[in-house]
Amino acid sequence: MRIDLHTHSTASDGTDTPAELVRNAAAAGLDVVALTDHDTVRGHAEAIAALPDGLTLVTGAELSCRIDGVSLHMLAYLFDPDEPELARERELVRDDRVPRARTMVGKLRALGVPIEWEQVARIAGDGSIGRPHIATALVELGVVGTVSDAFTPDWLANGGRAYAEKHELDPFDAIRLVKAAGGVTVFAHPLAVKRGEVVPESSIARLAAAGLDGIEVDHMDHDEPTRARLRGLARELGLLTTGSSDYHGSHKTVGLGAYTTDPEIYGEITRRATGAFPVPGAGGPRPV
């Protein structure tokens, strides 16, 4: 089985619609794909309706969190999307995205970049607006060569010249809320230093003690020594280890299934979840 547990659609900051994403996942030879848009479950219904034969969908979200002044992302899988407290927190984060994006556009204009809010809104479309949409605008304007080039201290990286804070969950609250909704939590790309400051291993240990289920190890932003370090940490803390593409469509060069999760780990995730269940396409594999 080929299992990719971290992807994004136009419901947040990817370029594939949810229907396109599941079709592309099947074409890429995946057996299981998780749709984990930022702080939203809005794309799940469309993805389920378009789910091809032979592909199983894991519903989820990537939650925006902050600990000790450092941003982090928490992948939440197979939770009850209607659990009210978690739904309310997701809404708070989403509601803060537009004013935050407007602030970053204002900072860019103050730096002499001829960016317009209408341009960013056009790029975001119906998605949950975020930094990748602003980064795409910078590419269109010729300010940077690629979306990744915009995520530097000169521009949109955490603490960068045009960066703006946003409402983010305390990760301990995120773990509590996801578990109360029957879900499973995995710390996304925990040592992706190219994205900015990362949390120390001592904080990961605290999160593990609070009920964190796993950490994302095999990821494009982790080199081999970092992956080895994370595997050792996971063994020490009793955490599951996952691998995922963090696919965003044309916003990133990584393809679906570039990094995958071991089927035994996937099976353990599905066993721990009680809020929702993987959705198989007609004739697709059943949950492990």
Q: Could you please describe the fold and organization of this structure?
A:
α5 crosses α6 (131-140). By secondary structure, the protein is of the alpha/beta class. Mean pLDDT is 94; it is low at 283-288. The chain has helices at residues 18-27, 44-49, 84-95, 97-110, 117-124, 131-140, 171-180, 201-209, 224-237, 263-272; strands at 3-7, 32-35, 56-67, 70-77, 184-187, 214-218, 240-243, 279-280. It is globular, with a radius of gyration of 18 Å. The N and C termini lie close together (11 Å). 36% of the residues lie in helices and 15% in strands. Strands 1, 2, 3, 4, 5, 6, 7 and 8 form an 8-stranded mixed beta sheet that branches.
Order of helices and strands: EHEHEEHHHHHEHEHEHE
Radius of gyration: 18 Å
* Count of alpha/pi helices: 10
Which class best fits the helix and strand makeup? alpha/beta
The chain-level mean pLDDT equals: 94
Q: Find the count of extended strands (DSSP E, 2+ residues).
A: 8
Q: What fraction of residues sit in β-strands?
A: 15-25%
In the predicted model, the low-confidence regions spanning at least 5 consecutive residues are 283-288
Oligomer: single chain
Overall geometric form: globular
